[in-house]
Amino acid sequence: xxxxxxxxxxxxxxxxxxxPGLQGNDNAxxxxxxxxxAPRGAVLQLRKPFVADMSATAxxxxxxxxxxxxxxxxxxxxxxxxxxxxxxxxSIAVAWASLTVGGFLYVQGSADGTHxxxxxxxxxxxxxxxxxxxxxxxxxxxxxGAFTDADTVELTLQQPTPSPGVDRNxxxxxxxxxxxxPLDCSLGxxxxxxxxANVTGWTITNVPLACSLMIQITxxxxxxxxxxxxxxxxxxxxxxxxxxxxxVKDLLAITTFDGGASWRATLAKAFA
Length: 272
What we know:
Number of domains: 2
Shape: elongated
Number of helices: 1
């Protein structure tokens, strides 16, 4: 028996390899991409069955349980159209709201088919939730083989690998400039704001497709006013008004489901 050091290297790892210890048969098991030590992007949908539709390339719902590419040569595609339900009639539409640009989309021939060796790994460049299907902007990272019309495939969706060194639970201080508050979503989820002048605007940057932020606002000795972005929509319909007492703390909570185009906002007031 050869020594490990003498064995032929297995070649590049795709992430789609099934872990042998978890396989009960050829169609069971957990792909390597879903396991291992952190950091690793969360898997939103794992090995969902679909049928490849290569009869068209148009921007349209490919039909129940189907996916299609926007190019007759799938490896040259820039968008993949995916029905909201897989081939087993299970909905995967919940993934569209949380799937983040920079994540990954894997397509592989089904384990019980004759084209298991065909696969594609795409990085996600955009996510659009259309009526009955999603339009996923993609950039090809690697592939093997070629799919044909009506092939049965497996679809996996994975979030990006968390950025090293970024602690989402860290508390960052917001420093207004000329009345404008710059808020960088890439820094974390929690912020403190202690305005020393009236706030007249906000600039919110690096917004993922969906996120929630908490901002603690501490009122100045001189009562400061805070204007809110037009993109804020408020619970109950009325915009929040910050407390006026010196040193009083309010808590602003904002959530977006569309990459910052709109924010759902609430303001809890007058914490001790």
